[in-house]
Amino acid sequence: MEIWPNTLCLAALLVACGVAGELQHCVWSENPRNEKFILDESSWELTLEGEWMIGFCVPLIMACIKFERVWSKFAHEKQLEQSDMTVASMKLEYSETVIRRFSLHELPTILHVKNGVFRKLPTGQSIQELHELASFKWQEIDPMPFWQHPNGLLIRAHVRYIQAIDQVYRASWFNADYEHATWLVRIGLILIMGIILTIFCNIYNCLYDRPKPPKCGKKSKKQVEGHSVRKQKGSSSQVSFFYL
């Protein structure tokens, strides 16, 4: 008889979990594309497709605290509108690669992304300003230059450099500070670049700087001209002797 209360509690808990799961499934099915995203370094490539507005903020800055409240309301209203734009926030804690990848110089910062084209927008202080930026004002702003594009060659090389320093610093065999890890990676890059440059120089010398063999069968221009002059002199002397 003592088993029945425990069984009833367990059944009620299962039913409640099932109802909650169904409600969550309904919310997701009604608006699957406009759930608020939290992006980081491992998932930022999702922004290369579709239309996004990304907010960059850290919770310890007073301006970011105010911005985060407005940004959350803006994201909620965009979800209710069921628009094609996805509103997301980017994690910045302990992530220097995100700061370098998106060329962040101040916080908070807003980026508009459409089909891989990034634009840095002015920070809206109200929901109305954010709606105007999302609707039409983003078209008035020039895209980010190629050397600042998050997926560009220069930015990717810089991010790889930072990731290499982090990997060396966190390696089990490395027992020095972050500055020594930075110098170790720099020295390694210099050595690698020197080796690559040496290989290219050797290949160039082998292909284009081969010694050319002397051409024995052909005479120089001066030798040919001298021979023709001597021949003309000899023929003129023979003609004069014949007339004599």
UniProtKB/TrEMBL annotation:
<keyword id="KW-0249">Electron transport</keyword>
<keyword id="KW-0732">Signal</keyword>
<keyword id="KW-1133">Transmembrane helix</keyword>
<feature type="compositionally biased region" description="Polar residues">
    <location>
        <begin position="234"/>
        <end position="244"/>
    </location>
</feature>
<feature type="transmembrane region" description="Helical">
    <location>
        <begin position="183"/>
        <end position="205"/>
    </location>
</feature>
<keyword id="KW-0813">Transport</keyword>
<feature type="signal peptide">
    <location>
        <begin position="1"/>
        <end position="20"/>
    </location>
</feature>
<keyword id="KW-0256">Endoplasmic reticulum</keyword>
<dbReference type="InterPro" id="IPR036249">
    <property type="entry name" value="Thioredoxin-like_sf"/>
</dbReference>
<keyword id="KW-0812">Transmembrane</keyword>
<dbReference type="GO" id="GO:0005789">
    <property type="term" value="C:endoplasmic reticulum membrane"/>
</dbReference>
<dbReference type="InterPro" id="IPR052454">
    <property type="entry name" value="TMX_domain-containing"/>
</dbReference>
<protein>
    <recommendedName>
        <fullName>Thioredoxin domain-containing protein</fullName>
    </recommendedName>
</protein>
<feature type="region of interest" description="Disordered">
    <location>
        <begin position="214"/>
        <end position="244"/>
    </location>
</feature>
<keyword id="KW-1015">Disulfide bond</keyword>
<dbReference type="GO" id="GO:0015036">
    <property type="term" value="F:disulfide oxidoreductase activity"/>
</dbReference>
<keyword id="KW-0472">Membrane</keyword>
<keyword id="KW-0676">Redox-active center</keyword>
